[in-house]
Specification:
two-stranded antiparallel sheet, 18 helices, mainly alpha, about 450 residues, single chain, 2 strands
C-alpha cells in the first residue's frame, strides 16, 4: 500500500556526490544477485546437517522471515531515499547516536563476514575441482584485492559486473533444477528423505531448536536485500523503483532456494551434503544428467565472487552514508574525483575483509552474518513503527502494521539461543561489538577535539 500524505507529491530530486546510474531493471537484477550466491552454493550442506532430509523447511521459514523484514525496508527506503540504510533509520527513530553507531557497525561487520565466507568458499571444494596448489588464505586475499579494484573503477562497472555474474549464478541454479526435474521424470532420488528430520537430541524441544538453528543458518542465504537500500542515492527514482525490485528479488530467490533444497535432499543424503563446502557439486555428480562437474564448479566460483563483490560494495557505501550522517569522520565520505566512487570507504572495508578471511570457516562466518543481521532486522522492524509519526511530503509504500511486528518477533527468536548456534558465533559477534564500542569512543574524542562533539 502507499502512504498518501500528499497525493500530488513525489520525492524531490536530491543533489548528491554519487552518480545515479541504476535503473529499475538493473536494480532488480542487482537485488537478485545480492541475495543469490554464497549462502545457497556453500551452506546448503551445513543446513542439512542441522535438520536432516527436510532441508526445504528452513528455507521456507527463512523466506517468510525475509519477506516480513523486506517490507519494512521498502517502506523506509521510500520514505528516506538516502544511503546509510539501517543506521539512518535507527537514528531517525530513536535518536540515540550510540545505538545508531552499533547498528551501523553490525551491518558493516555482517557484510565483511559475508564477504569473508565467500572468499573461503571460493577456495573450497569448487576451486579444488581445478587445483588445490594455492593456499586458501592467499587465494582469499587476492580475491578481495581484485574486487576492491573493480569497486574503485565505478558503480556502473561494478553493477554491470554484478549483472553478468548474476546471470551466471542463476544458470547454475537452473542446472540444479533441471537435474531435479530429470530425476523426478526418471524415478531417481529418494522422496522419503524430504520428510526426515534429524536433531542433535531427542524430543520435541530438540526438533524445535534444530529447525530454528537450521533456519538461522539458512537465513544467511536470504541476506542481501537490505544492502540494496544503500544504493538509494545511486538509483534513479528510488521511491518508485525499490518496492518492485526488493519484492521481486526476494520472491524469485526464495522460490529458487526452496526448489534447490528439495532437489538436493532428493538426490543426496544429508550427511554427504554436510561434509562438503561445495554441496551443489555433489548434487550435480549424483544427478542423471551428464553435466560437467568442472563447468558447474566454475559457475559456483562466479556465484561466490558475486556475493563478495556486492558485500564489499555495500560496506563501502555504508561508510559513505555514515560519514554524511557524521557517525564516522568526514574523511570516510571522500569520493574519487573522476570516478565518483567512495574511495576511502572501499579501501577501509577491503582492509578489514583481508583481516577477516582467516578468522573462521564458512559455516561460522555465515552464521555470524545471519546473527548480526537478525539483530539489526529486529531494530529496523521496530523503527518502522516508531517512525509512523514522522510524516514526509512525498508518497511512498507503507507496509501493513502486522508485518513489522511479526518481523521483529521472528528475527529475535532466530537470534536467540533457541536457534542452537555454536558459542563461537556469539563470541565472534561479541568481539566485533567490543571493537565497535572502542571505535565509537575514539570517534567521540576526535569530534570533541575538533569542536564538533
Amino acid at each position: 500500500m502507499t502512504d498518501t500524505t500528499d497525493p500530488g507529491s513525489t520525492a524531490p530530486p536530491e543533489e548528491t556526490g554519487l552518480k545515479r546510474a541504476i535503473g529499475p531493471r538493473l536494480l532488480i537484477l542487482f537485488v537478485i544477485g545480492d541475495i543469490l550466491g554464497t549462502g545457497i552454493y556453500a551452506t546448503t550442506g551445513k543446513v542439512a546437517g542441522k535438520v536432516g532430509g527436510a532441508l526445504w523447511l528452513p528455507f521456507v521459514i527463512g523466506f517468510f522471515v525475509a519477506i516480513l523484514t523486506a517490507a519494512s525496508y521498502v517502506e523506509l527506503v521510500g520514505k528516506y531515499p538516502r544511503a546509510a540504510g539501517a543506521a539512518l533509520y535507527t537514528q531517525k527513530a530513536f535518536k540515540v547516536p550510540f545505538l545508531t553507531f552499533i547498528v551501523a557497525f553490525m551491518v558493516m561487520c555482517s557484510g565483511l563476514s559475508s564477504a569473508s565466507a565467500a572468499a573461503r568458499a571460493f577456495g573450497g571444494d569448487y576451486l579444488a575441482e581445478f587445483t588445490d596448489a594455492v593456499p586458501p588464505t592467499a587465494v582469499a586475499i587476492l580475491f578481495v584485492l581484485a574486487l576492491a579494484a573493480l569497486n574503485l573503477r565505478g558503480v556502473s562497472e561494478s553493477v554491470k559486473a554484478n549483472v553478468v555474474l548474476t546471470l551466471v549464478e542463476v544458470t547454475g541454479l537452473l542446472v540444479i533444477l533441471a537435474i531435479g526435474a530429470y530425476a523426478i521424470l526418471t524415478g531417481d532420488g529418494e522422496p522419503g528423505r524430504l520428510t526426515e528430520f534429524e536433531a542433535s537430541g531427542s524430543g520435541g524441544y530438540a526438533l524445535l531448536t534444530g529447525v530454528l538453528g537450521a533456519t538461522a543458518l539458512g537465513f544467511f542465504a536470504f541476506v542481501g536485500f537490505e544492502d540494496s537500500v544503500n544504493m538509494a542515492e545511486e538509483t534513479r527514482d528510488p521511491v518508485r523503483t525499490f518496492p518492485r525490485a526488493i519484492f521481486i528479488g526476494v520472491g524469485v530467490t526464495g522460490t529458487v532456494y526452496v526448489l534447490v533444497a528439495l532437489v538436493s535432499s532428493l538426490l543426496v543424503d544429508h550427511r554427504t551434503l554436510e561434509k562438503s563446502s561445495g554441496p551443489l557439486l555433489e548434487v550435480v555428480k549424483a544427478g542423471g544428467l551428464d553435466f560437467p562437474p568442472k563447468l558447474f564448479a566454475l559457475i559456483a566460483l562466479f556465484a561466490v565472487t558475486n556475493s563478495a563483490l556486492i558485500n564489499i560494495m555495500m560496506a563501502s557505501r555504508l561508510c559513505y552514508g555514515m560519514a554524511n550522517e557524521r557517525i564516522l569522520p568526514r574523511a570516510m565520505g571522500r569520493v574519487l574525483a573522476k570516478r565518483r566512487t567512495p574511495v576511502t570507504g572501499i579501501v577501509f572495508v577491503s582492509l578489514l575483509a583481508i583481516g577477516l578471511v582467516s578468522t573462521g570457516e564458512i559455516e561460522g562466518l555465515g552464521d555470524t552474518t545471519a546473527f548480526l543481521l537478525l539483530c539489526v532486522f529486529a531494530v529496523v522492524n521496530i523503527a518502522v513503527l516508531v517512525l509512523r509519526k514522522d510524516r514526509v511530503a512525498h508518497r511512498h509504500f507503507r507496509t501493513p502494521t502486522v508485518l513489522p511486528v511479526l518481523g521483529a518477533l521472528s528475527a529475535l527468536i532466530l537470534a536467540s539461543p533457541l536457534a542452537d548456534r555454536p558459542a563461537e558465533v556469539y563470541i565472534r559477534a561479541g568481539v566485533l561489538l567490543a571493537i565497535g564500542v572502542a571505535l565509537w569512543a575514539v570517534n567521540k574524542v576526535v569530534l570533541k577535539v575538533r569542536g564538533e562533539g
